[in-house]
Amino acid sequence: MKARVHVMLKNGVLDPQGEAVRHALGALGFDGVEGVRQGKVIELDLAAGTTEAQVNEMCEKLLANTVIESYTVELS
Amino acid sequence: MRAAVITFPGSNCDRDLAVGLEMAGAEVTRVWHKDSTLPEGIDLVGIPGGFSYGDYLRCGAIAANSPICSAVKTHAEKGGYVFGVCNGFQVLTETRLLPGALMRNAGLKYICKTVGLEVGTSDSDFLNNYTAGQIIQVPIAHHDGNYTATSDELDRLEGEGRVAFRYADNPNGSDRDIAGITSANGRVLGMMPHPERAMEDAHGSADGARLFAGLIGAMATA
């Protein structure tokens, strides 16, 4: 089984990299980009039987810094 | 006074930190990240600057989960002293021994220069050799030094006198110009600037040496 973990900065945390990407899109002539938030996607190959609770624990302990980041888990 | 300085793969200021502590009179043991215990009788743990584990995932995140960091947490919880510089500060926030997080610099650039720091308080074993409000000159060298915390947390740090240093001219976007903070019991200090690179006049500033001398003086009389 696989898990896909999305890690994003929490709302309200300023994202300087996302802002730089937004400016660069504007410079390329893409008007109307009102905001960019940059995050990361982490794919996990998991042994059968791994639970969503275990993946959440991996996120809490290592994959996300919950002081500034939130995460979502998709299992497939 | 006995100190341990930890080396992670990618640490590059570990020797400088050890030499800085030795210059102030500490007996220093170097400790490898895979060790799971600190040497007996250690008073202070130094967590050096550098790029532990290549800054993979987040700066300091993997180091914070290494075997030696469990021992560092236990040492801090028992009231031991811990001093984290630059990547060491990032490790301390990742272990949650200090609140908040260090994000990418607001200008997105790596910044390496000497900056003015305002001393937040002298009521600290780390800072007793300075005067509150004094401006000292210490180098910074980081890409991810943008200190971020919730406004409640920032209010608490300020209210409890735990802001050790503020940038005189904020280079990286840090909330409330914060460059270094201490733990609630005052025994853990994390800071982005490098006092171990300001030890003698030939370095351009000897202001960092006073931190080491003050700390070791305070611990000798404790």
What does this structure look like?
- The complex is a heterodimer of chains A (76) and B (222).
- In chain A, strands 2-1-3 form a three-stranded antiparallel β-sheet, with helices on one face.
- Chain A is built from two helices and three strands.
- Chain A has one domain (2-75): Phosphoribosylformylglycinamidine synthase subunit PurS (Mth169, Chain: A).
- The model of chain A has no long low-confidence stretch (mean pLDDT 95).
- Chain A has 76 residues and is an alpha+beta fold.
- With 222 residues, chain B is an alpha/beta fold.
- Helices cover 24% and strands 26% of the residues of chain B.
- Chain B has helices at 14-23, 67-77, 87-94, 151-159, 207-221; strands at 2-7, 27-32, 44-47, 81-85, 101-103, 111-119, 135-142, 146-148, 163-167, 178-182, 188-191.
- In chain B, helix 2 (67-77) links the parallel strand 3 (44-47) and strand 4.
- The longest helix of chain B has 15 residues, at 207-221.
- Chain B is globular, with a radius of gyration of 16 Å.
- The model of chain B has no long low-confidence stretch (mean pLDDT 96).
- Classes of the chains: A alpha+beta (76), B alpha/beta (222).
- The A-B interface holds A 13-14, 16-17, 20, 61-63, 65, 67-68 and B 57-58, 61-62, 65, 93-94, 99-101, 103-108, 146, 148-149, 173.
Secondary structure: elements and pairs:
The complex is a heterodimer of chains A (76) and B (222).
Chain A: E1 2-9, H1 16-27, E2 40-45, H2 52-63, E3 69-75
Chain B: E1 2-7, H1 14-23, E2 27-32, E3 44-47, H2 67-77, E4 81-85, H3 87-94, E5 101-103, E6 111-119, E7 135-142, E8 146-148, H4 151-159, E9 163-167, E10 178-182, E11 188-191, H5 207-221
Parallel strand pairs in B: 1-2, 1-3, 3-4, 4-11
Antiparallel strand pairs in B: 5-8, 6-7, 6-9, 9-10, 10-11
